Each structure stands twice: as C-alpha cells, then as structure tokens.
C-alpha cells in the first residue's frame, strides 16, 4: 500500500514566501474569522513553522512561532512602517478570533469554536510578533500526513482581499478534483460573509464572489467558471470549476 503523502518541511534558509502553508482540509474549509492583516499574520506564522522539524517543535515544549516586521514587509511587499502597524493591529485583535466549524448530527447542526492562539505577543521595540498556537488548532497544522491543503505563501502574498485568499484556499483543498461545490451555508461560513451578504445573494455575488474570482484570475492566473445551484428561485449552492492557466498560473 502506498504511504500517505506527508507535509514536507523546507530548507530553514528558504525565503518565507517560498515556504508552505499547510492546514488540514477541515481547518481550510472552516470559518476563520480573520481580516486581511490577521490572515497574513496567521499564514506567515504557519509558513515559518514549515521549516521546523517536528522533533524541534516538541523539544521546545511549546507551539510558538515568531515573525519579524522585516519578514512581513518583504513577503507582502509593503513598507516597514506599514508592516509594524499591521502586525501590531493583527496581534491586538487575533486573541479574540476563532475557528468555527459546523457538524451535522441526527439532532441538527453542532457548532464548534476554538481559538487560533492562546497568547499573542508584540514587541514594538524589536519589531516582532510571537504567537502561541492554541492546543485545539495544533493537530490541524502539524504532523499532517493526509487530508490536508498545502500552498506556497507567495501564491497568496499579492492578494488584497481576505475573500480572495479564502476562495483560493478552498480551491486548493479541492485541487485534485478541480471543482468546489459548497452549499450556500458552507460558502457563507468559509468566506465569513457578512449578514447583509448572507441575506441577499446579489450582494454576496457583487461584494464577495465576483471580486474574489476576478482577483484570482488576474493575480493567480486561474481559469474559473462558476454558477449557482438553485432550488426553484432560491440559491442553495455554488459550483466552481477551476484550473491552472499553463501560461500564467500561480496555483
């Protein structure tokens, strides 16, 4: 029997943008509750852990990672002052952000929430943020051998919308099929759609879907087609077909 594919750690000297962001598929498809700066911080810290062997993580006795403002600025091609500001704001708000998943049970849906981090430290003088991963999220980030999503950080570094980033991650989690077919409720959760967008599909399409699809086509070179799945006049799901453009793709 063929051994399951494992997440592979990269050379620790590799640029942060060349490292992998690895997450379980369950985490990838959940609600993340993150704005763009928070998403950048989380993804960068996941990528930094990609270069660290599991034995080293266990030896330290804590699931911690430190990201400097210089690394952040280089990865996302912004000024150092902007990097300081974004990191501080993201560190301040991240402690109150959580992952939300919904499981269907015979007695109805069960909602599960857990934090991203147990502690977030920002050192203004030295210009770094240190995250302590919450114990519930650790199994979704480390030691992954199957059912996980992986992409290089540079594949999302140019994105300017958290919606585009989340749609990209959902596509990557279904990359083997080239098709992403969420129910409308699953899509709302994955995109962390606002209540006004959930209540009005035209707003969801105008504010979330179309801008995200356009940005992924322009910046990642994806070929994307999508349509709604309807029950009568009601939209109950979405059907995305996507593939890499061999000439321009960053997928």
List the helices and strands and how they pair.
Layout lengths: L19 E5 H4 L7 H14 L4 H7 L3 E5 H8 L3 H15 L3 E8 L2 E8 L1 E7 L4 E6 L14 E5 L9 H12 L5 E2 L3 H8 L3 H5 L1 H20 L1 E10 L2 E11 L7
Q: What would the CATH topology of the largest domain be?
A: Arc Repressor Mutant, subunit A
Superfamily (CATH H level) name of the largest domain: Winged helix-like DNA-binding domain superfamily/Winged helix DNA-binding domain
Strand content: 25-35%
Order of helices and strands: EHHHEHHEEEEEHEHHHEE
Mean pLDDT: 90
> According to CATH, what is the class of the largest domain?
Mainly Alpha
Helical percentage = 25-40%
Specify the biggest β-sheet: 3 strands, antiparallel
Count every beta strand, where a strand is a DSSP E run of 2 or more residues: 10
Write the CATH architecture name of the largest domain. Answer: Orthogonal Bundle
Please list the strands of the largest sheet in the order they lie side by side.
Answer: 2-6-5
* Ends distance: 29 Å
Specify the overall morphology: globular
